[in-house]
Specification:
Mean pLDDT: 82
Structural class: alpha+beta
Strand order of the largest sheet: 7-14-4-3-16-20-18
Low-confidence stretches: 1-39, 112-138
Largest sheet: 7 strands, mixed
Strand content: 25-35%
Distance between the termini: 18 Å
Length: 461
């Protein structure tokens, strides 16, 4: 299964290319005589509402026989471009691995092992993927190149256009074989957005035995001014056959959600409710406090979710309703702390460690009856001490040591005090008719402050 690395761009295969397949890279366009679809995408977005400053990071992964590839990224204002760590999204995934509760147990006691009451099912996330022609105008195109440069291994141009047909012609004149429609370009032209065009030289990538190329380019961050936290969703519609799965990491002063029917509250609230009676020590991450604050609103929210056909089932991924719309799901959410910075810098452990109550003893020691009795007494004392110190278990997660070490590449990009919200949405094609507005997570006047970094009994796999 192929995995896309982002959205927001409209990728292009350059003129003269043979049919190719691009794997990721935002809402890309089809190469000439080829069908290119976008089954999935990922985005890291940072938002500063006071400065009206937004940024998003994109990393295309592609394969094919074209000599060059390209992409077009629309933004509300002129962006500045910055090179990001090559495995940026891998580092984000490792940092946001869900924790699970574990309890110490002995392999040496001559009794049945203690049941791990706090170990719940593991949760993993994966990742998945208008045509109206304007009449031609026989006049000189009026497209202005505002800036040209290089970021990482990518040549780019930032351009402005007053008319969609001018932009369409400019792409053609500059050897971009754009198979999309002018109507989608016009959507952004009318909003006076700018376009960043990037060319990718595949000669810098791995060449396969069949002569095709495959690889990923260095991820690039686009930073720009914006009145609202908006994500260019509509341009993705061109490269989507019926649906696309998007995974968002959003860093902002507050927890972020999608508005209206796209909100994750239709799965988040019933998941918290269902877990509230079977979680040792109560709901983690102040989930129980959040339910109390909005208690009077919960029945209406659940009724609305049922009316939409969003029927929550504990421990299961949500299914689409009759209209083919799938509810958004919360994946991970937490305010970034000074302690997290130490984890990135390798100054604090990535995971808690469950005490080894058998430490210092072996199976051979247990064969001696007199020595065995003393060992059993010690192990029971260690177990009692662990239960007293951590009655609800130890929060653990696992990742290869090298991946944990490489979390240092996130330093400076994740900001102390900011809330990082990770959520997933499968967009049906008819849900992509406009760009995506992101809002503060709240119910009425009550801001959603609940965090989610620990697997619950009701968490989906």
């Amino acid at each position: 299964m192929r995995h896309n690395w982002l959205m927001l761009a409209a990728s292009l295969a350059l003129a003269g290319a043979v049919p190719a397949t691009l794997d990721a890279a935002c809402c890309y366009f089809s190469a000439k005589n080829a069908d290119i679809l976008q089954p999935a995408q990922k985005a890291f977005i940072t938002w500063d509402p006071e400065k009206k400053l937004e940024s998003f990071t994109v990393q295309p992964k592609f394969e094919g026989n074209a000599q060059d590839f390209g992409m077009v990224i629309p933004t509300p204002s002129r962006p500045t471009l910055h090179e990001m760590p090559r495995d940026f999204f891998k580092h984000l995934a490792v940092f946001s691995i869900m924790k699970k509760r574990e309890f110490p147990h002995s392999n040496l006691l001559p009794v049945r092992r203690l049941r791990n009451l706090g170990a719940f099912a593991k949760g993993r996330g994966g990742a998945r993927e208008e045509s109206e022609k304007l009449s031609e105008q026989f006049r000189k195109p009026a497209v202005v190149v505002l800036e040209a440069g290089v970021v990482g291994s990518l040549d780019y141009k930032i351009i402005a256009a007053d008319r969609a047909d001018d932009l369409f012609q400019w792409l053609k004149d500059n050897k971009y074989s754009y198979s999309g429609d002018e109507a989608t370009l016009n959507h952004y032209v009318q909003k006076k957005w700018l376009f960043t065009v990037m060319k990718i030289d595949t000669m810098q990538m791995k060449k396969n035995k069949d002569g095709s190329f495959a690889g990923e380019v260095t991820p690039t961050r686009f930073q720009f001014s914006s009145d609202k936290l908006v994500y260019p969703l509509k341009i993705t519609q061109i490269s989507v056959k019926d649906k696309t799965e998007a995974l968002f990491y959003v860093q902002a002063p507050y927890k972020v959600d999608l508005p209206g029917e796209m909100s994750y509250k239709y799965t988040w609230l019933p998941m918290l409710q269902a877990a509230s009676g079977c979680t040792p020590g109560g709901l983690p991450g102040r989930g129980g406090d959040w339910l109390k604050v909005i208690g009077g609103d919960i029945p209406g929210i659940l009724q609305r979710g049922q009316a939409l056909g969003f029927n929550f089932q504990p421990g299961q991924r949500p299914l689409p309703n009759k209209q083919g719309h799938t509810p958004t799901t919360m994946e991970w959410a937490r305010r970034f702390t000074a302690a997290d910075i130490k984890v990135l810098q390798g100054q604090a452990p990535y995971s808690e460690r469950v005490p080894n109550v058998d430490e210092g003893f072996t199976q051979a020691d247990m064969k001696d009856a007199q020595r065995s009795a003393a060992i059993i007494k010690v192990i029971h004392a260690r177990l009692a001490k662990a239960r007293q110190e951590r009655p609800f278990g130890y929060l653990v997660r696992e990742a290869p040591p090298e991946d944990v070490k490489n979390l240092r590449h996130l330093a400076g990009h994740l900001i102390e005090g900011k809330f990082i919200t990770k959520f997933r949405k499968i967009f049906a094609r008819d849900e992509m008719n406009d760009d995506l507005l992101m809002v503060a997570a709240r119910e009425g006047q009550n801001e959603d402050f609940s965090e989610y970094e620990e697997i619950l009994p009701t968490s989906p796999p």
